[in-house]
Amino acid sequence: MRTVHTASGRIPMLDVARFFGMILVYYGHIIERLMNLENAAAAAQYKFIYSFHMPFFFLLAGFTLAPQKNLLPVGRFLKRVLASRLVPYFFFSIALLFLTLIFSGWYVAVDLSKPVGYLEGVVATLLGFPVFNIPLWFMACLVSVEIIHFAVGRFLTSPIKILVAAVAFYVGGFYLTLKVNLLGGFTYWLVHEALVVYSFYLVGVLMRRESFLLGAQPRWRLLLASAICLLAVIFTWNLNQGPFQMIQAVVIVLSGHGNIILFPLTALAGSLFVLLLAKSAGANKFFMFMGENALILFCLNGVFYHFLNGPFADWFVKTFPGHWGAVTGAGVVFTCVSLAFCVPLILMLNKYFPQLVGKPRKAGPILPRLLSD
Predict the structure, then answer these.
(1) Buried-exposed string 55-85: b where 16+ CB fall within 10 A, e elsewhere
(2) Is 310 inside a domain boundary?
(3) What is the mean pLDDT of residues 337-353?
(4) SS3 for 79-117, per residue?
(5) Cβ-contact 101, 306 below 8 angstroms
(6) Is residue 367 in some structural domain?
(7) 245: which DSSP letter?
């Protein structure tokens, strides 16, 4: 089956899917702050979105993996990880650290009213928990996932081997995180959770291997399949009653998964829903632009997470009723405004500092390219 690409060689479905996932991230984080103010409607929406949206990103990372990357020499592989993952991780962590010196933000992991809080935050960030920019935990965990796959992926030479490995890593990681998690003590680069989400990464690798959804498909069929997947999420998300970690929902960074069967069932159904919907959207230029810059959106989300979502949530609960319609409307409006705010920043960062925001092969007017191959 022929894979559908754009003239630039990008696959529209994957870029659009990234953007749809980022909408869920931005929406989920504002809903989280409303939930923290004891809004029941927000709590339900939070649990629904979190039942699948972060597993989806790990699945998508596996789907977008270039097969030849796993055959690189160790030195070149580590250089790519450093340039494309760790450079943005530290760049945006440092940027938000400096913002804390100007603005008062929401930081629950450290006390920034004291110098020792900054020291603790720097140490934690170096060890893989980005307390100055919490959304970057995904980047830290993805680094661990990619290193795991570099070590074992070359041996997964058939679909059955990939599936067996996915199940084995999931079950082993699931039971490990019942004992080892952020609440039970610091864990380096979220490697404990990387074992669990690596199973979703492998599902993405298998999808790419089998060219899943990469050929042309009738739009009606895609929309019908996406509706079926959405119904699967609707009927299963609240069946998962835990036990969770601290928050009564699936929260990957806290290793809160809940039921060993229901968690991956809902997560995979939700991931398929997003992929199918993205495929049905076609090669929408704006969606693709935003998806191509999903890494920047992830990193910029820390600005809203730490500084803006809280004040907006406080204003909302004092001004509007807390029913489902009002909560949804507020979340949608604030998400749209937030993403619109990011567009000029994306353009500016890509123009002047592409090397620092996940494009290490591009040269900018200030810094040279970080990778030449």
Answers:
(1) bbbbbbbbbbbeeeebeeeeeebebbbbbbb
(2) yes
(3) 98
(4) HHHHHHHHHHHHHHHHHHHHHHCCCCCCCCCCCCCCHHH
(5) no
(6) no
(7) B
User: CA nearest 15: which of 364, 228, 373, 274?
Assistant: 274
Q: How many domains does the chain have?
A: 1
Contact 252, 193 (CB under 8 A): yes
Is residue 372 a part of any domain in this protein?
Answer: no
Question: What dihedral angle (degrees, nearest 10) is formed by the CA atoms of 99, 104, 106, 107?
Answer: 70
Question: What pLDDT, in 10s, does the model give residues 69-121?
Answer: 888 999 999 999 999 999 999 999 999 999 999 999 999 889 999 999 999 99
Amino acid at 162: I
Q: Please state, in angstroms and rounded to a whole number, the distance separating the CA atoms of residues 355 and 43.
A: 38
Quick: pLDDT tens for 295-308.
999 999 999 999 99
**Residue 210: which domain range?**
12-356
pLDDT in tens, 162-185: 999 999 999 999 999 999 988 876
371 belongs to a structural domain: no
